[in-house]
Write a structure and sequence with these properties.
single chain, mainly alpha, 0% strand, globular
C-alpha cells in the first residue's frame, strides 16, 4: 500500500486490537488470584505457541534454517514477551489493572527515543524529546510526590511496568534490525517459542511445576489471555500494519488504557485517582507530539 491510511475498516480493527490488549490487564488481575505472575506469563506464551503453530502449518509456511534467525527470535521473545509480561503481571499484584495500562502507554514514547538513539534512519529530533518530556511528566504525576519521600511497594510496581514499556521499546528496534524479510506470522510464532523456552526454566526455579488443578474460570481467563490477547491480537496487529501503516498503528497506545480502565471499573470495582487521570493526559499528549501528525494538521489550518 503506497499511502497507508486509517479507513473505516482499519479503525474498527484498531479498536478491536485495543480492546484485546486493554482486556489483558483485567484478565491478568483475575488470574493472579490463583496463579503466580511468572506462571501466568508461561501460560500465555505456551498456549499461544500451540495455536500459532497450527496456523503456520495450515498456511504452509516453513521454518527458517538459519541459526541467526532462531537466535533473533530468542532475543525478541525475551524483550517483547517474557520480560514485559512478567514485569506487568508482577506489578499488577500491587497496582490496579487500569493504572498498569496507563503506565504501559509510555511504550510509544520510549520507542521513539530508543529508535532515535539506536537507529540512523530515525534521528532523535526535538519533537521526540519534547514528547518524551511530556511522558516523563505523566509518569511523575501518576507516581506522585510520595515516590520521593520513602519506599512504597506500589511505586516499585509502577517502576516494573515502566521497565516493561522500555523492554517493548527495545523489542521494536530489535525486530526492525534483526527480523526483516520474514513472514509476520512466523515472526510472531518464533518470538513466542523463544519466550516459552526462556520462561520454562524460570518458572520451574521460582514457582515450581505449574498447578493444573485450577478452577474453570481461571482456565478460561488464561486461555483468553493466550488466544485472544496474544494470538488474535497479533493477527490484527499485522493486518493493521499492512493496511494502515506503522504510524497509524501507534495510535493503539492511546486506546488501550480506556478499555483497560473501563473493564477494571465495571468488573473489578477498581478506581483511579486524579493523578492517574492527569498522568494519562500528559502521556497521551507526549504521544501526540511524538507522532507529529496532529500538530502538522493544526499548523496547516
Amino acid at each position: 500500500m503506497n499511502n497507508p491510511r486509517l479507513d473505516l475498516k482499519s479503525t474498527l480493527l484498531l479498536l478491536a486490537l485495543a480492546a484485546l490488549w486493554g482486556g489483558s490487564f483485567p484478565l491478568a488481575k483475575i488470574a493472579l488470584a490463583q496463579v503466580p505472575p511468572l506462571t501466568i506469563t508461561l501460560h500465555r506464551v505456551f498456549w499461544s505457541v500451540l495455536a500459532l503453530l497450527l496456523l503456520v502449518r495450515w498456511q504452509g509456511l516453513e521454518f527458517p534454517r538459519s541459526w541467526r534467525i532462531w537466535g533473533a527470535w530468542l532475543v525478541m521473545g525475551g524483550l517483547n514477551n517474557a520480560i514485559p509480561f512478567s514485569l506487568i503481571f508482577w506489578g499488577q499484584t500491587r497496582i490496579e489493572s487500569g493504572l498498569a495500562s496507563i503506565l504501559n502507554g509510555t511504550t510509544a514514547v520510549f520507542g521513539a527515543v530508543v529508535a532515535g538513539l539506536l537507529l540512523k534512519d530515525e534521528p532523535l529530533t526535538m519533537r521526540r524529546l519534547i514528547g518524551a518530556g511530556f511522558g516523563l511528566a505523566g509518569v511523575a504525576a501518576i507516581m506522585g510526590r510520595q515516590a520521593f519521600a520513602g519506599f512504597d511497594p506500589r511505586n516499585l510496581a509502577q517502576l516494573a511496568v515502566l521497565a516493561a514499556a522500555l523492554s517493548y521499546a527495545l523489542a521494536s528496534v530489535w525486530g526492525k534490525v534483526a527480523l526483516k524479510g520474514i513472514a509476520p506470522q512466523m515472526n510472531a510464532l518464533g518470538m513466542l517459542m523463544g519466550s516459552t523456552i526462556l520462561m520454562i526454566p524460570v518458572v520451574l526455579c521460582t514457582d515450581g511445576v505449574p498447578d493444573l488443578s485450577l478452577s474453570p474460570g481461571i482456565w478460561a481467563v488464561l486461555l483468553a489471555l493466550a488466544m485472544l490477547s496474544t494470538v488474535l491480537a497479533y493477527l490484527l496487529y499485522f493486518s493493521i500494519l499492512a493496511r494502515a501503516g506503522a504510524a497509524n498503528l501507534m495510535l493503539v497506545t492511546l486506546l488501550i488504557p480506556p478499555f483497560a480502565v473501563g473493564i477494571g471499573v465495571v468488573f473489578l470495582n477498581e478506581a483511579l485517582g486524579p493523578g492517574a487521570i492527569i498522568g494519562f493526559a500528559l502521556i497521551s499528549m507526549g504521544l501526540v507530539i511524538t507522532d507529529g501528525r496532529l500538530l502538522r494538521r493544526i499548523k496547516k489550518r
